[in-house]
Amino acid sequence: MTSRLSAVLPATLIALSAMLIAPARGGPECGQDCAKPCCAEKKEACADGCTKPCCAEKKEACADDCVKACCANLETMIPGFKAPSLWIGDEAPKLQIAQFIKGDSVEKFEEGRVYVVEFWATWCGPCVKAFPHLSEVQEKLRENVTVIGVNIRDTQEGESQGARIERVSNFIKEHSDKISYTVAIEVGDEMHKTWLKPAVQKSIPVAFIVDGDGTIAWIGHPASMDEPLEQIIAGQYDRETASREVLDAMIVRAGWKAFAKGIKSDEKSEAENGYRIGRALAAQHLGDNAQGLNAMAWPVLSSDQIPHPDYGFAMDLARKAGELTEWKDAGVLDTYAMALYKTGDTPGSIEYQTKAIELTPEDAEARAEMVERLEMFKRDG
Q1: Where do the DSSP E strands lie in 70-144?
Q2: 177-199 per-position pLDDT tens digit
Q3: Does 2.160.20.10 match the CATH number of domain 97-245?
Q4: Chain centroid to CA 116: how far?
Q5: pTM of the model
């Protein structure tokens, strides 16, 4: 199972990318005004492994200790999660620039003009890869938009501001053929402190779109900014919805990390909390994302780095993924077969693994692993 295990994280990140543009709060089973959610298909016991809460109604059979996956505040469940104090809808902080090293200087945000303030560093490979795209955006939208690439978090040990300016200026000269927008260097680490830290942006590159009113309209990776930027220019942008969606995306990323860390813990209580976060994440944010559910379930079933595997949790996610794909996705069937095997249903695991293999091309790399698992199920059956 080596190759599929090694693909778990990339597959999950792909699933997360899809999930982030899905409806944010609540999957199909989640009502918005719940008081005592219970498991829609396990009303008799409301077991701890419940991942299908029925929040819309109060059932007499709902136990008080029923997992509140739909209604739990995911933000408060994530250890160390900090909500941003600078966000979409807030006035943009001022520019604190030591020197502009390419393009026109920008002293302040002019009313009626849109700005992209993108943060980067010389040591950041993805930042350098973003240079051509930022240049394309500037060329395409020059009449309405000014792109400013601000160098941050780039002072080397013992380096003066002047030495940093010289070093970064030389770096920009080496990449000048890729850059056709304004580039600047922050004063000390002031813009990191006044922009990124309060917005809880820990990774770069990251872009802030500032609208014609001087208000932050969007925050995210520059590769994802084209659509909101064009909507802002056209006056068709819903800032309130964007604020909620971008914050939800932030919570999802933090929730995934907390889930992955928790279930790997040797401490049972920490692992249990990881699964609670996973249930809330699945119920509130995965919605109808079958591949996201599948990617969350697989490592629980197959990894030897999970000391306290919750097979009931994985089974619920795999079953939901199967229903969503109408039992026609080979990867989902493979996961569901493993869930059946781990929960003691060997005949069922053989049936669904056989279906998974039938749906997999003979030359596919995953097919050999699927066949190995089928043989294992048969031996144990």
Answers
A1: 97-102, 114-120
A2: 999 999 999 999 999 999 999 99
A3: no
A4: 22
A5: 0.67
